[in-house]
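Below is a filled-in request sheet from our internal design queue. Each sheet records the structural input a requester submitted and the sequence that came back. We keep these sheets so that new team members can see what a complete request looks like end to end.

REQUESTER: design group, bay 2
PRIORITY: normal
MODE: inverse folding
CHAIN LENGTH: 423
BACKBONE (tokenized):
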């Protein structure tokens, strides 16, 4: 263990949440150990301003809950305590110990940790953490940083390194491979050689992770503002094929699929940077669009009308994806609507087209159309037309549609109404 005194690091109490300081002070006041730990310490040492603050202690979850009326115990696999101060939540975890067959720890046959409520010492907790840069502890009592895994050296070297044997740590929890990639993308760090090499050999372990948990990880990977870099690393380390195999296969075969997804990630990252809202539905729509588009084309070749073909293709592709990633209906429904609107955007005609910009899902579908054009898909250049069209009022839209060439290829009107035969 290395103890870095206050005059040898840059952490200042004024950059720490007052709520976190209160939690640590109360725990210390009851003769418990209490440290700021994990991402907050890491980001403070990097000169950042973290929003989330986690505390580690030797108090059990029940003892922590007894000290804070504004708290509740959550989780089964890992029992932790959430202490709420208004909208802010301070997460308090008890030091984890080694698995020796006692306590509430349980492994599966493959070595996966099924339950991890085995408590131990500060030293044991440090080596049980996944990454060296996340095993740094700040003591608000004496202002020192405790470093048990050379995390400070790895921070200075801009290095992501798993603590312990990477193969064993990935067997314990395969999601750690995604965390390695996520933090490398977020911080712009390189991945240590052994940590990276073991990912390629262990990537298949992700296939056994429950679909709901993988969906939660997808949100962290792609909606935190560094999705483009994350996507590059997922592909480089052969992880995307275990999350979205269809997307990986299409990107290998067609550069337009790769360009579409890169553009979607860049757009989402920009929205996050500008503090604008983002939705998983848009990224998921981009990930699965090549598969849905191809399936719809095959159905059209069999005689299905375009709208029905896309509707059927969307249902099939999303159902297959949900076997790996449990996509909630609140996101799968907007995905289908974005896809199904693409044909109407490519073939604008009639009153329905005039009213389309006023529909709830139009903006997302329009943005998606523009990304398809950026990726090189042939939409007939209709994106620029919709850019102008949506700014018009309803009357002007009707005039614009009336002036549009009715014989313009696939976007033209049908040849005419069928006449009723005389009686």
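RETURNED SEQUENCE:
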């Amino acid at each position: 263990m290395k103890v870095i005194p206050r005059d040898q690091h840059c952490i200042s109490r004024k950059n720490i949440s007052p709520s976190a300081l209160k939690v640590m002070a109360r725990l210390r006041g009851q003769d418990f150990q209490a440290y700021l730990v994990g991402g907050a310490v890491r980001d403070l040492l990097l000169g950042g301003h973290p929003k989330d603050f986690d505390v580690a202690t030797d108090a059990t979850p029940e003892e922590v809950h007894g000290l804070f009326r504004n708290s509740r115990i959550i989780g089964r696999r890992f029992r932790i305590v959430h202490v709420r101060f208004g909208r802010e939540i301070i997460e308090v975890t008890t030091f984890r110990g080694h698995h020796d067959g006692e306590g509430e720890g349980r492994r599966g046959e493959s070595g996966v940790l099924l339950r991890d409520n085995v408590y131990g010492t500060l030293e044991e907790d440090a080596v049980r953490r996944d990454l060296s840069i996340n095993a740094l502890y700040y003591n608000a009592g004496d202002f020192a940083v405790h470093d048990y895994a050379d995390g400070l050296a790895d921070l200075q070297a801009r290095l992501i390194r798993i603590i312990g044997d990477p193969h064993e740590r990935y067997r314990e929890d395969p999601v750690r491979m995604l965390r390695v990639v996520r933090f490398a993308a977020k911080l712009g760090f390189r991945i240590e050689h052994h940590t990276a090499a073991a990912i390629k050999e262990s990537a298949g372990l992700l296939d056994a992770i429950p679909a709901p948990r993988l969906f939660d990880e997808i949100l962290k990977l792609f909606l935190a503002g560094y999705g483009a870099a994350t996507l590059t690393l997922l592909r480089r380390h052969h992880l995307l094929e275990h999350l979205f195999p269809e997307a990986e296969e299409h990107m290998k075969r067609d550069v337009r699929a790769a360009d579409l997804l890169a553009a979607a990630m860049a757009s989402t990252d920009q929205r996050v940077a500008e503090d604008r809202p983002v939705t998983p539905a848009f990224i998921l729509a981009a990930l699965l669009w090549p598969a849905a588009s191809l399936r719809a084309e095959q159905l059209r070749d069999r005689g299905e009308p375009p709208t029905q073909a896309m509707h059927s293709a969307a249902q099939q592709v999303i159902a297959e994806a949900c076997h790996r990633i449990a996509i909630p209906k609140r996101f799968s429904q907007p995905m289908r609507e974005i896809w199904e609107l693409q044909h109407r955007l490519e073939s604008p005609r009639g009153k329905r087209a005039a009213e389309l910009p006023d529909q709830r899902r139009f903006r997302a579908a329009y943005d998606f159309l523009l990304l398809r054009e950026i990726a090189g898909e042939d939409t007939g250049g209709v994106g620029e037309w919709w850019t102008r069209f949506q700014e018009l009022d309803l009357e002007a839209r009707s005039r614009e549609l009336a002036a549009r060439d009715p014989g313009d290829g696939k976007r033209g009107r049908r040849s005419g109404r069928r006449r009723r035969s005389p009686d």
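SHEET NOTES:
- Residues 101-108, 407-423 have pLDDT under 50 and may be disordered.
- The first strand starts at residue 2 and ends at 4.
FILED BY: M.R.
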